[in-house]
Amino acid sequence: MSKKIDKITHFIHEHHVMSLATASQDEVSVCSLFYVYDEESGCFVVASSEETLHMQHIKQNASVAGNILLETLSIGKIQGLQFRGKFLTLEEGRLKKLYFKKFPYALALNPTLHKIEVNFFKLTDNRLGFGKKLIWSDASL
Predict the structure, then answer these.
(1) What are the tens digits of pLDDT across the range 11-63?
(2) DSSP state letters, the chain
(3) How far apart are CA 104 and CA 39, in angstroms?
(4) Where are the domains positioned within the chain?
């Protein structure tokens, strides 16, 4: 595994909430979702209700984008991750277990779980130098 993806993965594991953007025709939406990230599959696992606007968009267009960020006023500590991928129904039992291990209280809600197969990451990390960006993409997805 490259040093780029190692730094990206480390950043992802330090957080647990993402912003997810969706679009369908000329309508856009953004929401916040709790996530768990599986390095083996390169997927985020999230829970969401079918009635939400973002899920209605995803039924029309499974391509999504999102970000995870460190909220700080210190310019030298700014870190943020942008990603793109496909939003899919989660069927893998192993990934479901991974989500509920991190968020056991979610079991009581019996949520529908989904996965985001990531094909692009861009991590901005000012600790590595002002405006330093690490980019990873997987053209096969």
Answers:
(1) 999 999 999 999 999 999 999 999 999 999 999 999 998 899 999 999 999 99
(2) --HHHHHHHHHHHT--EEEEEEEETTEEEEEEEEEEEETTTTEEEEE--TTSHHHHHHHH--EEEEEEEE--S-GGG-EEEEEEEEEEE---HHHHHHHHHH-GGGGGG-PPEEEEEEEEEEEEEGGGSTT-EEEEE-TT-
(3) 20
(4) 3-137
The class (CATH top level) of 3-137 is mainly beta
CA max distance for the chain: 44
Count CA atoms closer than 13 A to 139's CA, side-chain side: 0
| pTM of the predicted protein model | 0.90
Interior CA angle at 82 toward 81 and 83, to 5°? 120
Please give the structure tokens belonging to residue 15.
């957080």
User: Which two tokens mark 70?
Assistant: 């460190």
Enter the tokens of residue 8: 């990206």
Mean pLDDT of the chain: 92
